[in-house]
Amino acid sequence: MIFHQFSRLFAQVAKTASRRRAVHKMLTEQQIKVTPRAADRLKEVVDEGERLRLEVDGGGCSGFEYKIRLDKRLNDDDLVWRTEQGAEIVVDELSLGYMQGATVDFVEDLMKASFRIVNNPVAEKGCSCGSSFALKLD
Fold first, then answer.
1. pLDDT of amino acid 9
2. CB 3.0–4.6 Å: which of 11, 87, 116, 136 could bond 42 by disulfide?
3. How far apart are CA 71 and CA 57, in angstroms?
4. 16 occurs within a structural domain
5. Are 56 and 95 in contact (CB under 8 A)?
6. Residue 95 near residue 84, CB atoms below 8 Å
7. Average predicted confidence (pLDDT) for the chain
8. 44: number of CA atoms within 13 Å, CB side?
9. Any idea what the Cα angle at residue 48 is, between residues 45 and 49, rounded to 5°?
10. What is the CATH classification number for the domain harbouring 101?
């Protein structure tokens, strides 16, 4: 009896989670571009259930700062981009406004290897490390 009730409860939770996941909007190429190098590297580094989260926060040496991290959460206002291999990138709606049309790349140089936001059409200038930017004031 208890096992049957637990099974029904588990099935309801799984069904709700499945519906919740399907509700999230998918990002388009016009909103965020992802280089093949970034998509390949993302698939290599994520664990089960992890996604690459892109955020924009106030601060940094140029006014706004990119925050890029692995995250298992999926918030109600997140938009999702999925690679052919199944890895995912998420951006909340507010942050997307500050990087609409930008490209996610994976860059390796002598100092570090990291995911970066490049070619952001709404950014006017940025710091030399590429982690902060100022908005274009058209």
1. 46
2. 87
3. 16
4. no
5. yes
6. no
7. 81
8. 9
9. 105
10. 2.60.300.12
Res. 22: pLDDT tops 60: no
* Polymer length in residues for the chain: 138
118 inside domain: yes
What pTM was estimated for this model as a whole?
A: 0.76
Q: Considering only CA atoms, which of 57, 66, 32, 64 is closest in space to residue 136?
A: 64
Please indicate, yes or no, if residue 3 is contained in any of the structural domains.
no
Could you read off the pLDDT of 61-105 as tens digits, one per residue? 778 899 999 999 999 999 999 988 788 999 999 999 999 999 999
Q: Does residue 7 lie within any of the structural domains?
A: no
Q: How far apart are the first and last CA of the chain?
A: 66
Q: Which residues 6+ apart lie within 8 Å of 94 measured at CB?
A: 56, 77
Q: Which domain holds residue 96?
A: 25-135
Q: Can you spell out the DSSP letters for the chain?
A: -HHHHHHHHHHHHHHHHHHHHHHSEEP-TTTEEE-HHHHHHHHHHPPTT-EEEEEEEE-STTSEEEEEEEE----TTEEEEE-TTS-EEEEEHHHHTTTTTEEEEEEE-SS-EEEEEE--TTEEEE-TTSSEEEE---
Number of structural domains the chain divides into: 1
